[in-house]
Amino acid sequence: MAHKKSSVMTVKIDNASAALTEITASTNSASLRAAMELLEDSVLSDTAHNYISGMMNGTLPLNGWVNTTTDGIFGPLTEGTSITKTVSFYNGISYYTGEVWAEVEFSGGAGELQTWSANCTFDGLINRTSVAPA
């Protein structure tokens, strides 16, 4: 079985008019993290810790270069918003989509390209499918 390279990854996020916009060409790093909380339910007579599963938490940290498209998507988030963004992340096999809250940072230094970073936290479940979102 062939291993997947980063060149098959895609990242899409909704723009100001709520249309999914591909920003892969302006993204240099993306990773999907899903973790289940573990809740300890040990009692006094236990000799080892015991855990039960809690709620799921998913994040999608993104980084890339500033251009008119990425500034149009992430710039308004610096003003504060109560609206989630829709994201789609493709790893070459499956599409992971959902609604996220995004923390955004713009940065750059002398002689460097301006960059953006967004830490997207899923609000609810991450949907995994083999079909591209519309």
Structure commentary:
The chain is mainly beta. It has one domain (6-129): Elongation Factor Tu (Ef-tu), domain 3 (Beta Barrel). The chain is built from one helix and nine strands. It has one helix spanning 68-74; strands spanning 10-14, 20-22, 27-30, 33-40, 51-65, 85-90, 95-107, 115-122, 127-129. Strands 1, 2, 3, 4, 5, 6, 7, 8 and 9 form a nine-stranded antiparallel sheet that branches. β7 (95-107) and β8 (115-122) form a beta hairpin. It is globular, with a radius of gyration of 18 Å. The two termini are 29 Å apart. The model has no long low-confidence stretch (mean pLDDT 92).
Highlighted features:
134 residues, mainly beta, Elongation Factor Tu (Ef-tu), domain 3, 1 helix, 9 strands, 5% helix, globular
Number of helices: 1
How much of the polypeptide forms β-strand, as a percent range?
Answer: over 45%
Rg, Å, rounded = 18 Å
CATH architecture name: Beta Barrel
Distance between the termini: 29 Å
CATH top level label = Mainly Beta
Predict the CATH topology.
Answer: Elongation Factor Tu (Ef-tu), domain 3
Overall mean pLDDT stands at 92
Envelope shape? globular
Number of domains: 1
What series of H and E elements makes up the topology? EEEEEHEEEE
Helix content: under 10%
The major pleated sheet works out as: 9 strands, antiparallel
The secondary structure category is mainly beta
The number of distinct β-strands equals 9
| Low-pLDDT runs | none
